[in-house]
Amino acid sequence: MNLVDAFHYSKYKLLKISLKFLKRRYIVYRSNYGFKLNLRLDRSVDRRIITRKFENDNIELFKKVVKNSDCVIDIGANIGVYSLIASSLVSEEGIIYSFEPSVNIFKELNNNIKLNDIKNVKTYNLVSVIKMVSPIIIFVKTTPIIL
């Protein structure tokens, strides 16, 4: 473990101890991606965000692929990390459609979108969408992406 990793791991441990005393379930955390998130320290995904071990390679690739004014579909958006990153990449000209099937996680996704005052992300509870529409047709860009 290098010094930076040790620092972030120590920060996570201190937060965990503090939350026990404060009897709070959530913290508002400014991520290294530049936005704030409501996080719970009892979830592994949230801990990985704090310790900066959350899908770093995938996120770097995502940043290379998503361009200004793109339309991004985030299926299984969870708490919104990729949706929030995409929001900054596509700017005001683009749009992000975020789908999350879990009702509780969907609420957290919406809270994170509101926390950052994001306007170009539209969220949908996937279960509700499936009940509304029968067939869903998604057109995918057929041009190969060269990195």
Topology readout:
Elements: H1 3-22, E1 27-30, E2 36-39, H2 44-50, H3 56-65, E3 71-75, H4 81-90, E4 95-100, H5 103-115, E5 121-125, H6 126-132
Parallel strand pairs: 3-4, 4-5
Antiparallel strand pairs: 1-2
Explain what you see.
There is one protein chain. The protein is of the alpha/beta class. The chain has 2 domains: 1-54, no CATH class; 66-140, 3-Layer(aba) Sandwich (Rossmann fold), CATH 3.40.50.150. It is 46% helix and 16% strand. The chain is built from 6 helices and 5 strands. The protein has helices at residues 3-22, 44-50, 56-65, 81-90, 103-115, 126-132; strands at residues 27-30, 36-39, 71-75, 95-100, 121-125. It is globular, with a radius of gyration of 17 Å. The model has no long low-confidence stretch (mean pLDDT 82).
Summarize the model shown:
Keywords: Methyltransferase, Transferase. This protein has two domains: 1-54, no CATH class; 66-140, Rossmann fold.
